[in-house]
Write a sequence for this structure.
């Protein structure tokens, strides 16, 4: 089972980091294929808690080679800060890390543009993480981006930074009323990291294809999620990349036939951070109780996450578009103690019932949830290690979600720790 992809099935923060870490000691390579340090993946190992933003979560497993694919956008300051912080905690990363020479860089001016654009949008803002991710991808598509390999040639890098800044400085000065940025200073800041990056740079597509030819196991760790995807998400309230499973191909250079298993990570309820439609959002005390019980505060920005009950339509669409072979249901323990647990099974859109997500964004904005109510449980399930350990009503809830999603649930998370997991089917 060599090519495995982990994809968020909702709006992010489903627990992809924990799932990746758990599989880490069984895989040879663990690869980020999209996004940048807008991600926040938390892994708890005993008393230690790691918040990873740019490096793949599999970095905590000594066996796996961590890789950043061409689809990732890299802020070099963040990268080396993360590497050094991990090294200080006894996790060596720098020696093993491979970085695609084709990956794009986030320059300091991308962060500036991200922040001023959001401010300028006012009420129409996206609620980005402010890390410069969107502007870096915009430059990539606009063909004025900077790539990791440009660090090898200072004069080329200087030319590219100057070209990118020419237009941006007009915008910053004339539209946003900000000071112009110095191309020389930006170039210098990027080049300061060049010698550290040089030995990590690799032809990632070649390395991964060779590994797969040899029967090695490669785990592609998705960041963000299906509903934040630039094509399939709730546009324009999305991220600027392709977190879907297909992104693992374009973001690393392996063909679609090399992906053998696609694991959707779905929270047992729903959360979203940032702006955008969320039909099942609970704006009352119930939402607040879920937020507190689940510790739903962003790993990257600390923002409170918006909360709602499990929305089967949201996960079903993700299952279809990504061809999930398995679903890993996380944070089931957070639902302990509710008398009834509602599940969104359909939407009402202006008087019409929808059993799948509507085709248009306007309809999605007008959707109100139709719930089904399942009996809850009061027993602490955080010590459960097999499906049979779960109370009957809890089992029935899981089986109903499985039926609604249409994909088998192969793993269940009952706590943040590595071993707080129930496996129903092997994932590797
Ligand atoms: P990611 O971005 O998908 O990796 O998810 P985050 O790390 O942003 O958010 C998930 C949070 O839930 C983290 O704090 C995890 O430690 C925690 N977590 C993951 N799985 C479980 C689980 O099954 N139960 C509980 N209670 N917490 C979990
Ligand atoms: P992980 O990998 C949750 C959201 C932001 C914003 C939108 C665009 O931890 O699941 P961006 O900075 O990417 O341009 O912001 O996407 N967002 C996330 N929400 N989890 C994430 O990552 C996210 N990455 C981006 O809040 O709404
Ligand atoms: Mg997260």
């Amino acid at each position: 089972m060599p090519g495995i992809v982990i994809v968020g099935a909702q709006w992010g923060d489903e627990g992809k980091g924990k799932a990746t870490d758990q599989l880490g000691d069984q895989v040879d390579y663990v690869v980020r294929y999209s996004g940048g340090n807008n991600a926040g993946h938390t892994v708890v190992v005993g008393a230690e808690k790691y918040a990873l933003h740019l490096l793949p979560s599999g970095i905590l497993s000594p066996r796996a080679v961590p890789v950043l694919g061409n689809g990732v956008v890299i802020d070099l300051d963040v990268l080396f800060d993360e590497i050094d912080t991990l090294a200080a905690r006894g996790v060596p990363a720098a020696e093993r890390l491979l970085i695609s020479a084709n990956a794009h860089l986030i320059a300091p001016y991308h962060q500036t543009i991200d922040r001023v654009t959001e401010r300028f949008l006012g009420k129409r803002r996206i609620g980005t993480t402010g890390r410069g991710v969107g502007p870096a991808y915009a430059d990539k598509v606009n063909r004025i981006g900077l790539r990791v390999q440009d660090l090898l040639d200072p004069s080329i890098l200087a030319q590219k930074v100057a070209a990118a800044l020419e237009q941006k400085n007009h915008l910053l000065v004339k539209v946003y009323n900000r000071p112009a940025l110095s191309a020389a200073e930006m170039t210098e800041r990027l080049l300061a990291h060049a010698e550290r990056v040089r030995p990590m740079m690799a032809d990632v597509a070649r390395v991964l294809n060779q590994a797969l030819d040899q029967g090695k196991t490669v785990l592609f760790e998705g960041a963000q999620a299906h509903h934040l995807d630039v094509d399939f998400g709730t546009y324009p309230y999305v991220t600027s990349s392709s977190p879907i499973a297909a992104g693992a191909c374009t973001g690393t250079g392996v063909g679609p036939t090399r992906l053998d298993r696609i694991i959707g990570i779905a929270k047992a309820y729903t959360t979203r951070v940032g702006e955008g439609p969320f039909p099942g959002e609970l704006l009352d005390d119930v939402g607040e109780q879920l937020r507190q019980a689940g510790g739903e505060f962003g790993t990257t920005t600390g923002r409170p996450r918006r909360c709602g009950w499990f929305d089967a339509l949201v996960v079903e669409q993700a299952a279809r578009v990504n061809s999930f072979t398995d679903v890993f249901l996380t944070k089931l323990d957070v639902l302990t103690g509710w008398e009834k647990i509602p599940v969104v099974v359909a939407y009402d859109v202006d008087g019409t019932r929808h059993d799948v997500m509507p085709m248009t964004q306007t309809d999605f904005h007008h959707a109100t949830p139709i719930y089904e109510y399942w009996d809850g449980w009061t027993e602490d399930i955080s010590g459960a290690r097999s499906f049979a350990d779960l109370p009957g009503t809890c089992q029935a809830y899981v089986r109903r979600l499985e039926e609604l999603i249409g994909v088998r649930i192969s793993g269940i998370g009952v706590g943040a720790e590595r071993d707080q997991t129930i496996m129903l089917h092997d994932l590797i």
Summary: The mean pLDDT is 97. Residues 154 and 191 are 7 Å apart (CA to CA). Residues 8, 11-13, 38-41, 126-129, 131, 133-134, 223-225, 228, 239-240, 273-274 surround 6-O-phosphoryl inosine monophosphate (ligand 2) (CB under 6 Å). The two ends are 6 Å apart (CA to CA).
